[in-house]
Every structure is written in C-alpha cells, then in structure tokens.
Amino acid sequence: MNPSQHIQPVATDKQGHLKNLSEWSPDIAQQLAEGEQIELTEEHWEIIHIIRDYYQQFKISPTMRVLVKAVREKLGPQKGRSIHLMLLFPNSPARQISKIAGLPKPTNCD
Amino acid sequence: MKKFLFVTRHAPYGTSFGKEGLDAVLMGSAFVPVTLLFMDDGVLQLKKDQRAASLNIKDYSPTFAALNDYDVKDIYVSADCLKERGLSAQDLVIPVAVIDDDGIRDLMKKQDVILSF
Amino acid sequence: MILHTVNKSPFSQNTLRSCLRVVSNEDSVVLIEDGVYAALDDSSCSELIKNALQRVAVYSLLPDLKARGIEQRIIHGIQTIDYNDFVSLTEKHARVQSWF
To answer: By the CB < 8 Å criterion, does B23 face chain A?
Structure first.
C-alpha cells in the first residue's frame, strides 16, 4: 500500500480543535471522533449537524446549556436533555461535540 | 446576586473592545444577571449588514442574536447616540430598548458593577 | 498635492476636524478604517464632509464601508474606492499625510 494514500492528518491546536475550520468534512469528523474514542452513529450526526447549524447562524460554539436548548427545539424533549448528549459524547460534551464538528471550543465550558 | 452592567462604547474592527466585551458578556451570563448598554460609537456594533469578510476577518455581529439563548435579554441603546449617527432601532441586528440619557442614568444607578468596553 | 488619510471615527475623535482645517483645495481626503463612519449621511457629522466636498475630493475605502455595513448609507458625492484605487491615488499625490 502506498503511504501517500493515507488520509493526511489535519492541523489541530493543542486541544485538538481544527486550526482551519473550512477543512472540516464528514471524513475529518470520523477522524476527530476516533481520536476521542467515539464511533459516530446516526444519533451523533444529528447533534453534529445541529451544532454546525448553530455556528453557521451565530458564529459561536454554544455552551452545553445552550446546545441542549437548541437540540430540544430541533429534536424534542426526549433528546434535548444533558443526559442524552453525555451518553453520546461522554467526555465534556459541549467541548467534544464542537471539536468533532470542526468548530472552535465554546467560549465558556459550563 | 450582584447586578452587572456591560457598557460598550467603541466601534467594531477599529479596536477589539467590542469583541472582548461580547465574549465577557457570554461568559459572565452563565454566573450573574447581565444587562447590556450600547452608547457612543458602541451603537455601531449593532449595525445591520456588516460583512467583515471584506477585511478578511471574522464577523461577530451575528453572535449578538445568540444573546437571547444566553439569557441576556436586557439590552439598551442610547437614543441620542443612534440619532447622532443617522441610525434608528430598525438599523440594528437585534431588537433593543432605546433609552434617553435620563434612562441611562437610572440604569447605571441600579447596578452593583459596571464594566466598560 | 497631498493625500490625507483619516482612520478615526469623527464621533469619538477630532482627527477629521483637524484634517479638514488645513486641507488645501487641490488635496484629496481618503476615509479609511473607523474613519469611514464620517461618510454616514444624516449624522451629526455629515455637514463636515458635505462642506469639504465643496472644495476637495473625498474618497472612502469600500471594504471598510462594507465591513461596517454602511456602504448604502453614505453622503452623495463621496467616491468609493478599492485597494488598487487607493494605491493609484497615493502614486498621484506628492505626499501622504496620515491623520490618526
């Protein structure tokens, strides 16, 4: 196998967030998720899309509380709860989701 | 709980005060009740149609619309400062309460801490 | 011939007033950065530029106007320019005076 066919590792900062946000793609998300030991399922993707939409609209990565609110609005009360996000992204969800979604880390991590 | 007023008095882009103030508000809103006041050139922060991409920098004016999600709902703008710049509330990216100088005086009196950006 | 550049808001500083006090008829004035707020029509500073336009050419940098969302609101008679035009203007004038 030709080593040049390996996926190029993307440039990230010390905390693992993409340096260049425009480099994000679903493949990159897979790669970033692997680094977090997360296997992305449909339920992960719907959260990733919501946080990316939020960033697109407001140019800011939402905090956990705000993300939960956004998820509740889009997917209903069943999924719009901290516990749902914590089960999918166990390690500091708001930070982990923003990282995998190719966004900056939230301004404050509550 | 102490009441915080954040006063923004500088235009966007020329200095980074506005962006820093907004970051501070988003952070502070998780802990204390926050009120926002825009006066002097600070009212220009809220002008609609900003496109910072033309300077190759990040446009943070869409973030003002997220303040509601962060439970920052008391947002005031000086009427005189808007008028001096040929602007009205319709020119701004978010709905605000437009107040006169007497209103600003009363607003400041009610606060425990005033932070200026 | 001097090209005068002004980069501060006329609402918070006196830079533009200082410039207009000494500008000669054959000179030109370019509003850049926060200086472009002087181009806003119907403001308390509009008269400054309107009077200046009677005797000197006034330009404003379009990327700075667009960033601030005011390119549709400027005083009639101000000419908007891009970076290339700015360079040409600098070449056409013997000297540049920056008011900052």
So the answer is: yes
